[in-house]
Amino acid sequence: MRQSQGLLRAAALAGALLAPALAAAQSAPGVTADTLRIGSFGALTGPGYLYGRLVMNGVEAVFDQVNARGGVHGRRLVLVREDDRCEPGAAIAATRKLIHQEQVFALIGGGCSNATIAARAEIEQSGIPFLVFASVHDGITMPRARNIFSTALTSTIESQAQLAYALEQGARRIAVVSMRDAWGRARYQPLMEEFRRRGVSPVADEEITPDANDATPQVLRLRQANADAVIMLLYPKPGAVFLRDAARFGYRPLAIGQSGIADPAAFEEQVGVPGATARFVTISMVRYTPDMPEVAPWRDAIQAKYPGDRLSVFNLFGVGAAQVLVEALRRAGPEPTRERLIEALNGIRDFPTDAFGGGITCTPEDGRCNKTVVWIQKEPGGPIRVIGTTTVR
Amino acid sequence: MLSYLLLSGLTTGSIYALVALGIVLVYKATGTINFAHGDQLMIAGFLAFTLHVLLGLPYLVALAGAVAGSFALGAVAAQVGFRAVLRTSLVNVVLATLGLAFVLKGFARLTWGGISDYLSFPPLVRPEPILIGDMVLLPQQLVVTAGALAVMGLFALFFRLTTIGKAMQATADNPRAARLVGIRVERIHLLAFAVGAAIAGAGATLMAPLTLLYPDIGFMLFIKGFAAAVLGGLTSLPGALVGGIAIGVVEALAAGYIHSSFLEVSAFVAIMATLVLRPRGLMGGPPPRRA
Amino acid sequence: MLEVEHLAVSYGPTRILEDVSFAVPEGQVVSLLGGNGSGKTTVLNALCGMVRPDGGSARIAGEDCTGRRPDEILRRGVAQVPQGREVFATMTVAENLEMGAYARRDRDGVRRDTERVLALFPRLREKARRRAGTLSGGEQQMLAVARAMMSGPRLLLMDEPSVGLAPAVLGDMVATIRALRAEGMTILLVEQNVGVAAAVADTAHVLRGGRIVHSGPAARLLGDEEVLRSYLG
């Protein structure tokens, strides 16, 4: 009895010692001699396609470029797409399918925040490396999950940057106009914390519902409070209604948006009143607009691969994220494992991309790798311009 | 400040009224709340957008197209979806309209969801904005108010002057007697759904420049329009107009004088108060009998 | 004018009419008598197409009209004056009459019939612009008859026109039916009020438990103590 127990122990010990070596020899899921399968989920259909399909197209453009140059350590990158339709249930199903059925090596994706949040538990548990490319909710990256990284700005980072920008521009009387749904609260709370941290308080704090068709009362109250800057935690629709009604009173404070209003040109049309957006700035996750010469190669690549598409900032989200992922894959070496990829991602420091406002830095403590906000503005009738960046903490 | 708030209440209230008119029309004729009305508006808006913005047809052609398209869609939906259940219970009809609402929203997401998040729709008129005090009134806001009045007036005439309008009213008044005088009540119900959808078509085209277009807009419009209809008494077209404007004004005043967080809740408090004091709403008659 | 043979009707699992046969000769007033639940209203509903019979047939002027839609039967010259009046309360008297002629396309005929009906009920002319809901019970009953007349029927089905009328107005109703008969109208009168039926009908049938239990000339049948007892019991 005693003897057999000893034998068992020895066998177990041997097994434990051998296991890693065996695993390495067997190669990780999604890795073959000449391919590396990467999974992606996000909305392929419906209005959320902006944060899904378009970003994936950017990822694919980078993969194509890498593959044309011989791949990563001789392996061709293959992108496997799944539709989450912007829905939590579908996102969980999509990640399960990618991890267990498609057996992908790593994930790059995540469009609509609520869908990505729903999939987080599944992803964290499986230990698969995951780089978020568009979802902005803090709950995806915080508290830290060791295998989850993000090149998307998070709502907290944006809120902090909004206040920093208002103060930088010399605003004395700062007001807040917000939606108080889940999306709005995820920005409102960190914004109020930032106000407290900086020892400032808003002169007015108003709400607008996502479906509002009128903001006259809010405009009148802000005007009464004599606010010279307004931090807008609004979607394009209520944002447009607010600026339209502000313009109707000739009231034009500095209006500071965030990435929820990502396209100043479409926004100008949505507002519909000439000149109403003259003092509106908003956050871009990327430092180029699609028509700048710096992104010409990507424009050519994307428009060649997806005829009918025009290069958009969402494509660039994917370009930046994919460049970070490819760099980490390179650093993970010729025999990649998921652990080695996570290690490599955690070693990314101040890495420059063709898209983001500043260098990308991931650490074991903080998976939010992109903390530089890019400010963009569109002068009425003019082009969209990049007017500066703000890097938080 | 008061006059600005009243004016803003009037213009947003006109949007609610335009929605409420269609809900009231269908309820009057069939005794059913059409929960798909908001989504019919949404579809009609996208239809008008396709005709006007994507195909570049003149605004009035787009308006006519949206009205005709909506009418056809309403008739088909009623024929396919509601006809069989209209004979059964009210709950079934309501479920059928809810089902239609989901179908329409899904259809819009797939068809127009890939263009932009919120589609902007150019206004009908772009003359000089009107200055009142230091506030500018957008011409389109007046167009919506005029449109709501026009739709109401047209239907008052339709009910008073045309045989088919009178048959509709007779069906709403007493479906059994309507059958006895040879009115084919099922056809009238079908027609009511189709005409309700046509009103949605006109309303959507008029309000789209102010509301923007997106697949989820229908529910909000329905809720506000339904509230306006209930406040107005559900069976009265002038009631729908008065109810819509009352809600718009209450919202504006609550948001302006108390706080913007009271806007959403104020309308419903007003409705509850009204219904406690006047259960038939502001201008309502007795509820329609069902066949 | 009307021949009903072996008519049977059920509401769900409940059989209301077992086997009903009778005829209404042209120009006559035939009365169908019965207590509550005897099935007499169901006979009318089956005749005017409001309910679909399970068996039997109804022929109007020789044409089989069993199971046809109300508007089709109306076009074949059969109009109903429903029980409880059922006027369009929110519409004016004139609009009620207009709705009565809804199925007709002959404008001249409608105009003539309007004049004829208003001559028969002068009170309705006085109140043409009033909402029907504001009329008295007797006036609403007149309006219901007038509205049915507006379709230009050959056969009038009247469902308990005496119900809810004040005794003073009852006489008007009897006079109205007599006047219609004098104009040559064929009438099937469903009644519970033996007095009214006896006063106007040529022939009477007593309905009980979904079957006709007695038939005969109205004057003789309704004078018969035994029949009345069985009918009342």
TrEMBL record, chain A:
One of its GO terms (biological process) is amino acid transport. Belongs to the leucine-binding protein family. This is Branched-chain amino acid-binding protein. Residues 35-373 form the Leucine-binding protein domain. It comes from the Bacteria. Pfam families: Peripla_BP_6. The keyword Lipid biosynthesis does not apply. The lineage of its organism: Bacteria, Pseudomonadati, Pseudomonadota, Alphaproteobacteria, Acetobacterales. Residues 1-25 form the signal peptide. PANTHER family: BLR6548 PROTEIN. The keyword Transferase does not apply. Keywords: Amino-acid transport, Signal, Transport.
UniProtKB/TrEMBL annotation, chain B:
This is Branched-chain amino acid ABC transporter permease. GO terms for molecular function: transmembrane transporter activity. Belongs to the binding-protein-dependent transport system permease family. LivHM subfamily. One of its GO terms (cellular component) is plasma membrane. Pfam families: BPD_transp_2. It is found in: Cell membrane. It comes from the Bacteria. Keywords: Amino-acid transport, Cell membrane, Membrane, Transmembrane, Transmembrane helix, Transport. InterPro entries: ABC_transp_permease (IPR001851), BCAA_transport_permease (IPR052157). The chain crosses the membrane at residues 6-29, 41-61, 67-86, 93-115, 135-159, 188-214, 226-250, 257-277.
UniProtKB/TrEMBL annotation, chain C:
PROSITE patterns: ABC_TRANSPORTER_1 (PS00211), ABC_TRANSPORTER_2 (PS50893). Keywords: Amino-acid transport, ATP-binding, Nucleotide-binding, Transport. Residues 2-232 form the ABC transporter domain. One of its GO terms (molecular function) is branched-chain amino acid transmembrane transporter activity. Belongs to the ABC transporter superfamily. The keyword Transport applies. The lineage of its organism: Bacteria, Pseudomonadati, Pseudomonadota, Alphaproteobacteria, Acetobacterales. GO terms for biological process: L-amino acid transport. This is ABC transporter ATP-binding protein.
